[in-house]
């Protein structure tokens, strides 16, 4: 799957793949996240946003600092792609939205059913 990956902290205004850029070049090599629990839901991300917190995270200036490398992005909406065996509220094809600590700048993200 495609994902925007922060490989090192730096200027988020630089395009991906450049030598000075904090971002790796976007490629389809990033693994699709697995359902890690019975209540996990995988969402195909349709929309996300660049907000000030994400901007600060890429620079290493936000109070929460994810370990490198990481996929930035917090708020997202999309369509349910797959559900764990214990999921009761959603099924593939349902539209959802949520907030995450990181990870929405990717084709897919996994969240617990209660977070959607």
From TrEMBL:
Region annotation Disordered: where it falls in the sequence: 1-31
Stretches assigned to the Alcohol dehydrogenase-like N-terminal domain: 38-115
Residues in the signal sequence: none
Organism: Zizania palustris
UniProt xrefs under PANTHER family: QUINONE OXIDOREDUCTASE-LIKE PROTEIN 2, SHORT-CHAIN DEHYDROGENASE/REDUCTASE
Cross-referenced InterPro entries: ADH-like_N, Zn-ADH-like_protein
Protein name: Alcohol dehydrogenase-like N-terminal domain-containing protein
One term of GO molecular function: oxidoreductase activity
């Amino acid at each position: 799957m495609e994902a925007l990956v922060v490989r090192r902290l730096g200027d988020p205004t630089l395009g991906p793949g450049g030598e000075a850029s904090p971002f790796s070049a976007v490629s389809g090599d990033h693994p699709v996240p697995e359902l890690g629990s019975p209540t996990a839901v995988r969402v195909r991300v349709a929309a996300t946003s660049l907000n000030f917190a994400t901007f600060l995270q890429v620079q290493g200036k936000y109070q929460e600092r994810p370990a490198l490398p990481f996929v930035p992005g917090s708020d997202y909406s999309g369509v349910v792609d797959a559900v764990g065996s214990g999921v009761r509220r959603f099924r593939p094809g349902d539209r959802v939205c949520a907030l995450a600590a990181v990870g929405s700048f990717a084709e897919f993200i996994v969240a617990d059913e209660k977070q959607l």
